[in-house]
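G.,

No rush on this.
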Amino acid sequence: MWILVIGVAVAVLLLVLVLATRGRSGAARPSDAAGSSDSTDSTDRAGGASTGVASETTPDPEPLPRAAVIVNPTKFDDVAKVRDEVRALCQETGWDEPLWLETTEDDPGSGQTKEALDAGVDVICPLGGDGTVRTVGSEMARARSEVPIGLLPGGTGNLLARNLDLPVDSLRDALAIALTGEERVIDVGVLRVNPAPMDGEGEVDDQPVDAEALAPEDTGPEELHFLVMAGMGFDADIMADAPEGLKSKVGWAAYLVSGAKHLWGSQFKAQVTTDTETFSRRTRSVIIGNCGKIQGLALMPEAQVDDGKLDALMLSPDGGIGWGAVLLRLVTAKRKGHHRVTHHTTRHITVRANRAVQVQLDGDTIGERTAITADVLPGALRVRVASATPATGASKEDVAA
């Protein structure tokens, strides 16, 4: 009898324990009710463990920084080799595969810059001559972009790079600075082309604007950007007559050949208006600078690339003796005291000529014009510079710091 009672009690106890165990299991795993697999889900969430406890999802790796390289393929004999060199250094530096964009005759860099900005790259590197740098910088300034520009040497002048003391003989060194250097904010010059004649003596008829001579980004309103210098007269004549083939063979010597050709050209009468004065003078060249140095020669010693101002230089030689005086004045970097060489610092300048004369921006000529107006866009462009030393054109406060 006692054996029967004990057997029934044990059976009831076992039944209660089973029901309780099933209840607790169902409460802890609601997915079972939906028909999902308890072992498979647990294993997937735990990365292979079958403990039934879900682990945290492994975060995606941070995307690598990426550069866009806007290259003028006509400047290189082997573009593929240059591309491989750029790609290899990006990889060494921990950067992603660069966005490689080549300019064309119809689009020298404006559309490529827009594409690079739309792609969200971290730095945009023009690789070509001063014209490519100007076109890329112009588009970035117009867009008020916060993306920095990294200057890579590929032309004869490399004017902006020289003014910022950046490498012009080593693509590898220049690219290293473009990827890892500091950012410096610089000004940009704006040139408005106005072909209207000056009033009074020597007045000429309106000259039509040569739209074909302007880059695609400049063909709307007559507003062009320059990063280094714009000029009217002798300097533009030199740029216009320096053959591309000769520049590719002998470099800057091509400009010496062209300069000798135009050395004895005639003066023109210019009416000049700055922030503080208006005057007229017969001159050979009017140069408006955002930077002041060309090939180591400080044409405008006080020009600073980030002071929110432009510097203007007027060269008014008369014959061979006059040119000798001008050269001496430029070499000794004296700013005042000679009527053949005058300097002016201003935020705005207008030059109106009594005849059409050649005009250039950063070494690119745009044809003959009778009047130009220039203004400054302070801090409109970010440029990667070397981290160790301040760039040429640094403000006195920055150098002192």
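When you get to it, here's the other one too:
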Amino acid sequence: MAQRISVFPLERALLFPRAYLPLHIFEPRYRALVTDALARDRRIGMIQPRGPGAKPALFDVGCLGRIADVEALEDGRFNIVLEGITRFRVTRELDVTTAFRQVEAETGEWADAEMPDALAAVVRASVEHSARRFAEARGFAIDWSAVGRLDDETFVNAIAQVAPFDVAAKQALLEAPTLAERAELTMQLLEFFGQAGGGEEDDTTLQ
């Protein structure tokens, strides 16, 4: 069933079901977005833009989130935390008068994939090995004992959210149908960006 979703286009900012994304909201149009969401159902769709500009085209797939925590600052800015609900596929962008963009979207195609099974032990170990190599090559300080206590979904999605991959790579991770496929793609990207030395610093929690 199609639904109307108010969206927040933001490069390299991924949200996954059951994951959390902190955001600092300072642009007037996104202050209006948060204010509107708080007055209605607290829901915002995170989606990546396909390029720069005032109104760039959007990728087809994003993730619907619920405002789980909010801090309203005196100057009108917000600090919020979004909790992922489900991915969605845009069917069309709506013609609206609001400062923020809205789309019509479907969520049904991920009904089964949004409840992932645990990874095979060898796959989990392989992802951790790739993540360690990537972090060491970049000089990142990681508490690996804490990482080891994360469940498979949280672990894989956390890498997808924070790793300095490019926009296309981030989108591919979001669109991976299952957790196992996302884990495999994560390993490939860690190896590729680790060897190439590419990627970008992740500052996507600010907008």
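The helical segments are 28-39, 121-138, 144-148, 152-162, 167-175, 179-196. The first helix runs from residue 28 to 39.

Enjoy the weekend,
O.
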